[in-house]
Amino acid sequence: MQASDVKPVAYSLRNGVQESWHNGAVVCLERDGSISFSVGSPNAIVFPRSSTKPFLATAMVAAGLKLPANLLALVCASHDGRPEHLQAAREILSLAGLDETALCNTKDFPLDDDAAREIMQSGGDKTALQMNCSGKHSGMLATCVACGWDHDSSYLNQDHKLQKLITAMMPELIGEEVANIVVDGCGAPAHAMTLVGLARGFRSVAMAKAGSPARVVGEAMQGHPQMVGGPTRDVTLLMSGISGLIAKDGAEGVYAAALPDGRAIALKIADGANRARPPLMRAALVAMGVDISHVDPRAFESPIFGHGQIVGEVCVVDNLLSS
Questions:
Q1: pLDDT tens track for 106-119
Q2: Taking the alpha carbons of 269, 229, 287, 216 in that order, is the dihedral positive or negative?
Q3: Helix, strand, coil % (nearest 5) of the chain?
Q4: What angle do CA 198, 76, 123 make, to 5 degrees?
Q5: Are the beta carbons of 117 and 74 closer than 8 angstroms?
Q6: What pLDDT digit, counting tens, does each position of 46-98 carry?
Q7: SS3 for 147-179, per residue?
Q8: pTM of the prediction?
Q9: SS in 3 state form for 70-97?
């Protein structure tokens, strides 16, 4: 993403006084797939990072991965590392005859503060299983076993059969060739694409035909949103409150969502910080006419704290997405 691709999209207020500006880009697709609204360049090249996990899972299912819906939802997750998430990752590995020693992804503490605190207080350390991408990696390994492919650490290489399959399927979903491939924080390949390509990809999953790999993935996410994030995470609360919606957050201020009627949204905060992301998603959903009345308000809140108390909030620029 270049500086010329973005515009001011939000600002932070501390005790009523403006403290920071947040630049970014957002694109909204209408039911027919045309661009309804955009701020900044819809053709900005971004690394969606974990927002592409539904695409990766679609490729895995197409290759032969078969999992119960709750476990498939974890394959799409940047999970909190709560006990239910770790157990689900273990189940995926066990079904493939593997255990967590096979993962080879980056070690980390859980994203959930309470879960991380409990581990540190008990003398525990970072592990690959606790890392928020372990569901994706468990799914990748299970796919490799199902297909008879190498399932040692080489499964993370761009030239591994699994990763080639994923890269080959990307254009089918996003409507364009991937712009670049680099190494993600977890060790797996990360694909770059345009912001509008990311929105198209979510639209493809949300509108997929019954029984198709993408539809199986979308239904797993919608049916088990708590596995995609955690009980207080914005992505989980968003999917829980809007029927049929699939959504996924990504590192560095990325967020994407789509409905079965074809409406889709993708956004990126330029500096990679996440605090402008939830209110910007709210503004985009409202601009698209999506009913958010049943969404837990915490999904859109981005409070500013002072001395342990809420003293301000992140606000979207007035009339940002007006037609």
A1: 999 999 999 999 99
A2: positive
A3: 40, 20, 40
A4: 125
A5: no
A6: 999 999 999 999 999 999 999 999 999 999 999 999 999 999 999 999 999 99
A7: HCCCCCHHHHCCCCHHHHHHHHHHHHHHCCCCC
A8: 0.96
A9: HHHHHHCCCCCCCHHHHHHHHHHHHHCC
**10 within 8 A of 277, measured Cβ to Cβ:** no
CA dihedral 79, 80, 84, 87 (to 10 degrees): 60
Work out the average pLDDT over 152-181: 98
Question: What single DSSP character describes residue 248?
Answer: E
Q: Kindly report the number of other CB atoms within 10 A of residue 68's CB atom.
A: 13
The Cα–Cα gap between 185 and 189 comes to: 9
If phi > 0 it is left, if psi is from -120 to 50 it is alpha, else beta; for residue 235 that is alpha
Handedness of CA 127, 132, 138, 141 (dihedral sign): negative
247 in Cβ contact with 241 (< 8 Å): no
Per-residue model confidence (pLDDT) at position 130: 98
Residue 323 reports pLDDT greater than 60: no
Sign of torsion, CA 295 300 306 312? negative
The span from the CA of 172 to the CA of 310, in Å, is: 45
Q: Which of 280, 310, 290 is nearest to 39 (CA)?
A: 280
Q: What are the backbone angles phi and psi of residue 173, rounded to the nearest 5°? A: -90, -45
Burial class (CB in 10 A: 0-12, 13-18, 19+), 87: exposed
Portion of the chain with pLDDT greater than 70, in percent: 100
